Amino acid sequence: MDRLLSVVAGSLESTMTEDLSPAERYAAARKRAAEQATALASFREMYEFGLDPFQIEACQALEAGKGVLVAAPTGSGKTIVGEFAVHLALRQGKKCFYTTPIKALSNQKYADLSKRYGADKVGLLTGDNSVNSDAPVVVMTTEVLRNMLYSGSQSLLNLGYVVMDEVHYLSDRFRGAVWEEVIIHLQESVTLVSLSATVSNAEEFGDWLDTVRGDTEVIVSEHRPVPLFQHVLAGRRMYDLFEEGEGHKKAVNPDLTRMARMEASRSYNPRDRRKGKMIREADRERERRQRSRIWTPGRPEVIERLDAEGLLPAITFIFSRAGCEAAVQQCLYAGLRLNDDEARMTVREIVEERTGSIPNEDLHVLGYYEWLEGLERGIAAHHAGMLPTFKEVVEELFVRGLVKAVFATETLALGINMPARSVVLEKLVKWNGEQHADITPGEYTQLTGRAGRRGIDVEGHAVVLWQRAMSPEHLAGLAGTRTYPLRSSFKPSYNMAVNLVEQFGRHRSRELLETSFAQFQADKSVVGISRQVQKNEEGLEGYKDSMTCHLGDFEEYARLRRELKDRETELAKQGAAQRRAAAAAALEKLKPGDVIHVPTGKYAGLALVLDPGLPAGRANGHRGFDHVDGPRPLVLTAERQVKRLASMDFPVPVEALERMRIPKSFNARSPQSRRDLASALRTKAGHIVPDRHRKGRAAAADDQEIARLRTELRAHPCHGCDEREDHARWAERYHRLKRDTAQLERRIEGRTNTIARTFDRIVALLTELDYLRGDEVTEHGKRLARLYGELDLLASECLRARVWEGLNPAELAACVSALVYESRVGDDALAPKLPSGAAKAALGEMVRIWGRLDGLEEEFRISQAEGVGQREPDLGFAWAAYMWASDKGLDEVLREAEMPAGDFVRWCKQVIDVLGQISAAAPREGSTVARNARKAVDQLLRGVVAYSSVG
């Protein structure tokens, strides 16, 4: 097809050329010759398909020596621009580093580039793997490049291009700072290629890149090469989310709006009968028929429906690992088979080849046979809890069309090249670590961006399952909002501070940090606030003129009025608080059987206390309730109602008028019991007239400050002005605007130099701990410069205090695990099991050192809430790391750790990474730590931890 198009294009071009004059034909020929001589021309010949306009524009800018920022939708082919940078580097005899945010993506890109340029020209560096690292093209995770920049690695020599794939990761609050560090610290001679998902502020990001990197071209493409169609699956029917409106405007499908409205107004409710509302049988029958068409289809049913519609392969996003595994089981139990016998045999051959190195006893522990059965049927899960090898096999089989239904968590959307014909979203809500929250338009775009395979599918499909209380308008908003803003998450760290000071000194480091995208965005927001402050100041001048009084200083008179009003308000609040406290104290004295008079409210009048309703823990022998607003007594009124009253029903203190015995047989739910006891209440106390509560003398009447202010006010010259109240209105406006202006000025002060001020506080703390002395980095500081991670300072302090001396490799692995591990369970979980002896003592000492650092951070105003500082070490993986490093079997370790194999492998690899850093940072003489850290790495890097293919 491409060949046919090129032939047609060629014949058209020759026809057009014949119509040109000789001079024009000569100019056209020269232009073609010039184009053929470019690097882009030879690059285009390497691909069977033609390049899109945005790709050509970006490549031309690169060849012209400019940096580029390419923002385009998922699946649009923006990595072509990154590959052109590789092509240019090889052509010019320079190096190119291709960085990615995750190891899986690095592995994938390494395989792609090796296939295209040859394994001898491409290397891989991912922290725990090094393959051909001296090659002219090296694929690496972004953290590896950051570490190379700080260490002044020789590999940076002759570096011509750096490709930063998925650069929008700099919004990530945990790792985003690394991207900015790299962008700021790369040599000026390096051309930067930034590839991003479509973001709404690409121009702003481009402006910043232009400031810190020099001439940068911003290329934004909103075009999806494969159009995406949005659907909602409800019951047996798949509805289009949009329908064409007037002037080609998209409108929400009215069928969906009708369904949502009908579900929201389901009129029949069994309680309605008790309220006397009778609904005609015909109406109920019609509603039952309508409702029978709306339900959320089950997972096997969804896959069968997609298969019938020709919409497989599909990725179903389920925001839960357990949900993904359950979905596979449900499909297996339902008897789903998406592969024929030939495909099944191919799947088995591939799986057995990829997993051949895993011992049989481990296969059983890893759930291999259940996993294989799903794969043979064309069904699989994909999530972070899986063994990396298993995930890689799923990815390979899916790309080859041998797995047709994948149930995945959102981590699959983070850059791995695994497109599908359809994407299914079960729900539009996910757990964000703190609460269930709606997914954002950016997340929706990222997830549904997988739908539609370029060169294979004519169109992609995003299918959302109908859920109760779903709003089609909200879904349309998610689907219609194509972009999301890029927000910097950059914050200085201890490691960053010592590395910067060592390379540039404190003053220059401070200036460098001021060039961060975080500060760029903060400064830009200050511009708008500054304009508002200027407008306010002009307004203040006008208000000041309007309140001018010929008798005296009206601003001073207005201040006296305001102070008087504030004092009266303060005393009124104090009085109200005292009355509430007195009323609450009186309520706390009530006991069951007390007869009271409820002073106000719907249930005012005589009442019998059944339960005092005291807050939990203050119930005087009675069961307490968790009432944050004070006692809430349960009472029986004289009108036979049993109600729990609130503090607002008692604006004044209440006293027991009489006492009554409450029969043991009394049942608050029995109308007869309520009637009998209410009758006894009226007989016992109906004749009692409660004392009327007398208001006390107002505090303001005797307040000396109020008396002084009133005297000064009356004596002021402006008090006798005929236009006093008119002036006062202008003075009030002046005061409000001045207060608002002061708030804006505080906001400006808070946003200006924020990064530098945080850096100053970090430097002050490091100076206190003798890591820095002015511009000098001490020996302790040089050790800290080699330790990267969230708990860099704690690790350095542990080395300094020799906490890990004398530990064997397994015990050291247990201690180091506390620096990286973060449990998924809450703070109320049981205390973790720990190794005994020296390891337990060392872990205890680590927690004590952290406590000291935490106190110092508080003293120097370094806040974890702002993303800076040291969190408490988590001991939850110590026992698992200790057992695995002690050569225990996989079955025993996973059972004791109570975690999936994938999580176990990931945490082990992170422990290995930090052990490598500790081995490099620990003293060489008079210390066992460096040697035992290397041994610990060897003891951890076995079995399932060593299986993952490349990264």
- The gross shape turns out to be globular
Alpha carbon gyration radius: 36 Å
The major pleated sheet works out as: 8 strands, mixed
Helical percentage: 40-55%
Number of helices: 36
Please tally the β strands and state the result: 26
Q: Tell me the β content.
A: 5-15%
Structural class designation: alpha/beta
In angstroms, what separates the terminal alpha carbons?
A: 38 Å
Layout of strands and helices, then pairs:
Blueprint: H1 2-18, H2 22-36, H3 39-44, H4 53-63, E1 67-71, H5 79-92, E2 95-100, H6 103-117, E3 122-125, E4 130-131, E5 137-141, H7 142-151, E6 159-164, H8 177-185, E7 191-196, H9 202-213, E8 216-220, E9 228-234, E10 237-240, E11 242-244, E12 250-252, H10 254-264, H11 270-274, H12 281-291, H13 299-308, E13 314-317, H14 321-333, H15 341-354, H16 360-365, H17 368-376, E14 379-382, H18 388-399, E15 405-408, E16 422-425, E17 429-431, E18 436-438, H19 441-448, E19 460-465, H20 472-480, H21 494-513, H22 517-546, H23 554-588, E20 594-598, E21 605-611, E22 634-637, E23 642-644, E24 658-659, H24 671-685, H25 704-715, H26 724-751, H27 754-768, E25 772-773, E26 776-777, H28 779-784, H29 792-800, H30 809-820, H31 838-859, H32 878-885, H33 890-897, H34 901-921, H35 929-940, H36 944-947
Parallel strand pairs: 1-7, 1-8, 2-5, 2-6, 3-5, 6-7, 9-19, 13-15, 13-16, 14-15, 16-19
Antiparallel strand pairs: 3-4, 9-10, 11-12, 17-18, 20-21, 20-24, 21-22, 22-23, 25-26
Helix pairs in contact: 4-5, 7-8, 19-20, 21-27, 22-26, 23-25, 30-31, 30-32, 30-34, 30-35, 32-33, 34-35
